[in-house]
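For consistency, the fold was encoded as tokens, which produced the following:
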Amino acid sequence: MVNFSARFATAQEIVDWDDHVTSNPNGGNMLQSASFAEVKSHFGWAPRFLVIEADGVQPSYNLALEKSVPGLGKYWYLIKGPDVGQPEHLLPAAEAVREFVRRERLGVFAVRVEPDVLASDDLAASLTGAGLVKVPDLQPNDHTAILDTTLDEQPLLRSLHTRGRNAVRRALREGAQAKRVEPTDENFRTMFELMNQVQDRNAMRLRSYEYYSMFWRAFVEAGQGRLYFAYEDGVPAVGAFVINYGKKGTYKDGGSIPRRKQYGDSHQLQWQAILDLKAEHGITEYDFCGTPPASELKNPEHPLYGLGLFKTSFTKTVVDFVGCYDVVVDRVRYGAWARLGEKVARNLWDRKHHQPFY
């Protein structure tokens, strides 16, 4: 077993944070970025920048979000981390973080980890056998559809699922208008309204406009985000905010009006975004950011069933990551958190701020 150790990043490493994260063993994730850390710092979380390393292994740079819980201490959410290149490195990397917070007496009673490591029965058994506690997933792309974008344009188009390929071709043939637009406040508000219309259809809860506009602007200003609209009768009918982070593209947010006349406009929008990210940033994969688990794709009762149909019309490569586990640092305080503390903290935060806790 590899012996990992953990430490806080140096000041210079934080300055160069995105360069380090995108060089991680698994290429990093946009939710570990400096932009995301800045956004979360305005919504109740304190960013902590961690380095997990071992001899002969590529160092892993990970964002930990810290929140203080009255009466219990500090709680860390290692979002999309630890980023490790091999499944067998996950447990020793998590143990290194636990030993670090104990050694430095940081007052952390638990660390929630959420790595982009493929789920397996053997891995789940090893994690729970080591005392990690399986908890519900938090991020939508703990189960997601990922498109390999390394092919040239025409071979890539032919590689899409038949439904997606036909939709893109029809939209192109019929002159669907999908294009990148300026990141103005007016366009951000339009995007938010399009997202609200999807919310009405699917009973999905959105965060506030303040949150989304801050998120979008932070990634735009870092050169990592862009906004697209597809138009119907000259009016935005479909919107998407997409992100480039290292060699990964991500479909982060989307919205649309119901009962549109133009067939394939949402497919054409995604296709245009993918081509742009390939040409300008050389992305090698595109994450559609959220589907049902692979075993639930055909279940019409799953809340993400409709989105899953759309996203798997591009690629049938649906991956299930291991999801969230709690690394227990202090068993007494964590017991209180697991029994009632987390539920109370989430409810109080929601009532006070009208925003999700995480």
Notes: The chain has two domains: 5-138+324-353, 143-319. The mean pLDDT is 95. Residues 143-319 form a domain with the Aminopeptidase fold (CATH 3.40.630.30).
